[in-house]
Write a structure and sequence with these properties.
With about 475 residues, the chain is mostly helical. The chain has a single domain, classed as Glycosyltransferase (Alpha/alpha barrel). It is built from 15 helices and twelve strands. It has a four-stranded antiparallel sheet with strand order 5-6-9-10. Strands 1-2 form a two-stranded antiparallel ribbon. A two-stranded antiparallel sheet has the order 3-4. α5 runs antiparallel to α6 and α13 packs antiparallel against α14. GO terms for molecular function: Glc3Man9GlcNAc2 oligosaccharide glucosidase activity. Keywords: Glycosidase, Hydrolase. Belongs to the glycosyl hydrolase 63 family.
């Protein structure tokens, strides 16, 4: 097992790299569950899709075999149509240990579903990037073999997004539920959610699991959950079929984060293809098409940032959230949009005095509906900061990336490996032992590469 040593980079205050390294490793070890890592022993006792991707990056630093087991176990639950479900349920857990559980999803209704119980939704496709980085963090023959096995599955994941989910036929994938964005109750979803018919009384038939383990004031409301249930029920009642979504599904949105992740995945797949002796050209071409579609469909030159598009109204959603910053992940993002999005990141809405050494909030700090305690309506999450850190480096701002890195380390130094954090005070919120926080902390502590570019998108493999 390695440690951060002197390569952990500068720290501030009580951010002792060795202590933080031990804390992060202990958190991952405590959440390991035979072939995957649970996000949290209390709030999230099953396997989650993009959690496993981030977690694999952390495992690569301390236990590379677990990184490959993590990704393999997730993709073993991939559907025949290529979708990677956002939850894979542990059959050893009792009914009622999580809501909504496997009996609610009833994935067996769908002919494409695997034998294991899963949800029918997806999450941002950060898995190809995770696989590439896991290999680069710990190159080995085992890792190369694992990449070779995962490569066709990653291709199928991308193909599903590019075909079944291109609802508008414009080159972008649509999400059918806020949970698919990964930022469940973001203010970005308020307008399209308001159009979903539901009543909080719907929840009387269910028992929420999350509010038994976390302060209800920090979680989505019961009305949010009633609408979440209604959207899932609509999708489930059509056996999770994607044909005809435009004519019948109550919630359809093109999300900047999910599509930026899809573009970044193609860049990562190009590098994986090169490693495996395959042709990277088709991946680069698909990445360019996704980037072009993102700018054409989701970039607003007036606000200078990216916004989700509500396909029910065919309008951009005006809320300014951290989602709008995520296209910086794309190395081929044109210079104009890249510059204005970096200005947005440095503004009072997300940064401070053109520095990024404050925690990144998930929503505009200056907005009237900013809620610093409630889930994705304001709190800081390490995964969004980690993604933006990569984007800033990819677009030539190592100074901003370094400040953001310091803020990530300081959050954990002060509060521990929490699920999320108050964006101003740094107080830990949600689960106190959250796996992706620990995993991504390991990655930034171990980061000893020059701050003049990102290493996971379309670049040379580090020596």
């Amino acid at each position: 097992m390695t440690g951060p040593g002197v390569a952990a980079g500068p720290s501030t205050g009580s951010a002792d790299p060795a202590r933080l390294w031990r804390l992060a490793v202990a958190t991952l070890e405590g959440n390991w569950e035979h072939d995957h890592t649970v996000p949290s022993r209390t709030l999230y006792p099953h396997q989650w899709s993009w959690d496993s991707a981030f977690i694999a990056i952390g495992w690569a630093h301390v236990h590379p075999d677990r990184a490959w087991t993590e990704l393999t176990s997730l993709f073993d639950a991939q559907w025949a149509d290529g979708r990677v479900p956002h939850i894979v349920f542990n059959p050893a857990l009792p009914v009622g240990s999580y809501f909504p559980g496997p009996e609610f999803w009833n994935s067996a209704l769908a002919g494409a579903a695997p034998a294991v119980a899963t949800s029918g939704l997806i999450q941002p496709p950060v898995h190809a990037l995770a696989a590439l980085l896991a290999y680069r963090r710990a190159p080995s023959e085992r890792g190369r073999s694992a990449l070779r096995r995962l490569y066709p599955r990653l291709l199928a994941q991308q193909r599903y997004l590019a075909t079944a989910r291109d609802v508008a036929g414009d080159g972008l994938a649509a999400i059918v539920h806020p949970w698919e964005s990964g930022v469940d109750n973001s203010p970005a979803w308020d307008a399209p959610m308001a159009a979903v018919p539901a009543d909080a009384a719907v929840m009387s038939a269910y028992r929420r699991h999350d509010t038994a383990h976390a302060d209800a004031a920090h979680r989505p409301t019961d009305l949010d959950y009633a609408r979440y249930v209604a959207i899932v029920a609509s999708y489930r009642d059509h056996r999770y079929a994607d044909d005809g979504l435009a004519g019948r599904h109550p919630w359809l949105v093109e999300c900047p984060l999910l599509n930026a992740a899809a573009g970044a995945a193609e860049h990562a797949l190009a590098d994986i293809a090169t490693l495996l002796g395959a042709d990277p050209g088709p991946h680069r071409q698909r990445a360019a098409r996704i980037t072009e579609a993102l700018v054409r469909r989701l970039y607003d030159p007036v606000t200078g940032t990216f916004h989700p598009r509500d396909l029910r109204t065919d309008r951009l959603i005006p809320a300014r959230t951290a989602l709008g910053l995520m296209p910086l992940l794309l190395p081929d993002l044109p210079a104009g949009p890249a510059a204005t999005v970096m200005e947005e990141a440095c503004s009072a809405r997300f940064g401070l005095a053109r520095r990024m050494d404050r925690p990144l909030p998930s929503h505009d700090r200056t907005a009237p509906d900013f809620e610093p305690l409630r889930y994705w309506r304001g709190p800081s999450w390490l995964n969004l900061a980690w993604l933006l850190h990569r984007g800033l480096r990819a677009h030539g701002r190592p100074d901003l990336a370094a400040g953001l890195r310091r803020s990530m380390i300081d959050l954990v130094a002060r509060a521990g490996c929490h699920e999320y954090f108050h964006p101003d005070t740094g107080a830990g919120l949600g689960s106190p032992a959250f796996a992706w926080t620990a995993a991504l902390l390991l990655d930034v502590l171990a980061d000893n590469e020059p701050d003049d570019g990102a290493d996971g998108v379309d670049g040379a493999e580090p020596g």
